[in-house]
Amino acid sequence: MEIRLPEKVSFIIDSLKKAGHEAYAVGGCVRDSVLGREPQDWDITTSARPDQVKAVFRHTIDTGIQHGTVTVLLDREGFEVTTYRIDGAYEDARHPKDVVFTASLPEDLKRRDFTINAMAYNEDAGFVDAFDGLGDIERGVIRCVGNPEDRFGEDALRMLRAVRFAAQLGFRLDEDTRAAILRLAGNLKKISAERIQAELVKLLVSPHPEEILSVYETGMADVILPEFSAMMRTPQQNPHHCGTVGMHTIRSLREVPPDRVLRLTMLFHDVAKPVCARRDENGIDHFHGHPQKGAEMTGQILRRLKFDNDTIAKVKALVRAHDDRPYPVTERNVRRSMYRNGEAQYPALFAVKRADILAQSDYLRREKLDHLAEYEAVYHQIVEKQQCLSLRDLAVSGSDLIAQGMTPGREIGSALEAMLQEVLEHPEMNEREALLEWFRHQ
User: Fold this and answer.
1) What's the pTM value of the predicted model, to 2 decimals?
2) Are strands 141-142 and 172-173 parallel, antiparallel or unpaired?
3) Which of 30, 64, 281, 357 is the most exposed place for a label (fewest CB within 10 A)?
4) Is it the case that residue 278 has pLDDT exceeding 60?
5) What are the φ/ψ torsions at residue 299 (nearest 5 degrees)?
């Protein structure tokens, strides 16, 4: 098997070799090339020390010089070149206490996380695959290099990364690797929220977001997302559902496009059901108020995981709106829903609602989908007619009311809101003169 290296990568490798050093493409770029995927980055490992790398190339940046990494710039494009190294003891479940440079490529590969990421390649030597990464790719297995407890002891985030890679590649966890995660999951509490967030999002937007189940089964969710563990343990004895809240959530993740906000919304759309659950005298479970409570909890969780404010606002709004249904589906009722939920939630809300329905039991599924299709059709009619749904689109402004003799103040806001309510009922009223006439008769 051969890999077609990009021209600039070959140039860097050849230049280092001409200077008397070893050099290889290494890690994820080799893995992705074997899998037929387009690598996002090309990393290069070399026997050359950082100062020797800098001597070979005209333009370099000391990106991580203490760890042996120099960025080589070719036509303003950067390539990380890292010296073979052996990591010292890890004292914080993330960083080695010290780094020792080595002339041995196998020693460098030995410190890497998974076998599929511990392969190196250049056009002369071909593959250097000391840990059977190629075999694990063929078998579809995520397996640690060497002792998994050692690898996870070096960086606890690797446990979550293992599941993330399984989700991205459609692979399964090696049994020893999985068993080590079960034993060491608690160490994730040492990892920053920002790093956990990054891995969680990659998992969620992957082709196999259902691998979030492995995060629960290995005990990691108890540490990083205890709310999801509660969902997995909450039954739904209700004709509209089958299985626990968590299993419904997992099914819904598969039914929505791999968009960051949509997948986060599906993960949290029922997050409040465990705290809202009530069982009636007939043994039927009800979850009254869970969308509103869920939006509140979602905001707390996303802030804890250090998400940005824009993402938090979008996901919260969709969680709050996910169970809102206009009955019957008329223009008036749909306008009311759009006003209540906020225009910004559309059309994403339809994808959320469709995924929610498809993840439920078969009970009334056809009727629910027909209702949703009707809802969406009327929404598009309203958009095409450019009907007013907010104060922004109201034909009258506060200045118009002041010109009518109203004193500036809180009453103006109340008056505009009253006009908007009238327009929501009668969209043809959204004309300046008609609204002012209506206002004068109030």
Assistant:
1) 0.94
2) parallel
3) 281
4) yes
5) -60, -40
Span 61-90, pLDDT tens digits: 999 888 899 999 999 999 999 999 997 666
Residue 154, token pair as written in the block: 């070096």
pLDDT at 378: 98
Query: Is the Cβ–Cβ distance between 407 and 389 less than 8 Å?
Result: no
First to last CA, the chain: 81
Check residue 409 and give left, alpha or beta (phi > 0: left; psi -120 to 50: alpha).
Answer: left
Residue recorded with tokens 């579809």: 140
Proportion of the chain above pLDDT 90, given as a percent: 93
pLDDT tens for 224-251 read 999 999 999 999 999 999 999 999 999 9
Distance of alpha carbon 97 from its chain centroid, rounded? 31
Whole-number Cα distances in Å, 130 to 57, 106, 111, 438 = 30, 7, 12, 81
For residues 395 and 433, what is the distance between their CA atoms, to the nearest angstrom?
9
- DSSP letter string, 363-408: TTHHHHHHHHHHHHHHHHHHHHTT---SGGG-S--HHHHHHTTPPS
Backbone angles phi, psi at 85, to 5 degrees: -150, 160
Residue 170 tokens read as: 């459609």
301: burial class by Cβ within 10 Å (0-12, 13-18, 19+)?
buried
